[in-house]
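Q: Fold this one first, please.
A: Sequence and structure below.
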Amino acid sequence: MSEARELLKRAASVLHDKFDGVKYMEPLIEEIDAYLAKPEPEPFGWFIEEKGMFVYGKNANDKWVSAGYTVTPLYPEHHARKPLSDDEIEAIYFGETKHAFLDGVIEFARAVEKAHGIK
């Protein structure tokens, strides 16, 4: 279980003990309970802190943990992708290409983001 999820479970326990039935706390308690009811995602990789490197695969962390390295699991929400703003696209385009032609660039960038599952 991730460290954040474990902390949230402990916080939920305190909220249930101290604030159960308190009207203004009910929405927060319900939201936390709903989040904790979802299955925790499997990590898709691990960050080996002392090496400054990433390893991928279901059990790729085993040899690093047994060797005494600090291993941090990486979950999909760590890498949530957000679309670039139009200004960011323009800054990248003009910074990289040095062209003054912009027609269709934003639409092209949005198509690329869409193809990569970025909404």
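Q: Good. Now the second chain.
A: Here it is, same layout.
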Amino acid sequence: MRRPTIERHSTPALPEYRPASALVQRRSMTIAPAAHPRRRRNVRGEKLLTVAQLFDGRRTLPMIRMRGEWLRRLGFLIGHRVVVRVERDRIVLTPASEE
């Protein structure tokens, strides 16, 4: 039995690569410091988070998002439940015990 013939298409040529002009432009640019550093902590070493907004289709709600290896080290494991306790001017999060 004879194999079918495969048609080969040629790819269009790529434009010529010229890195020199990009390097010249990069050298003349000034780089501003990041608006939000990756590790945000206050003078006491406490982690600082930003209250964001979440639109649920009808209204805008405040939202706090937390992520990082530090959560795992404190016992907040993926898929486990969290106890949220509201106190005066603070929110206390505790990993839920298996009861």
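Q: Anything worth noting on the second one?
A: Residues 57 and 63 are 15 Å apart (CA to CA).
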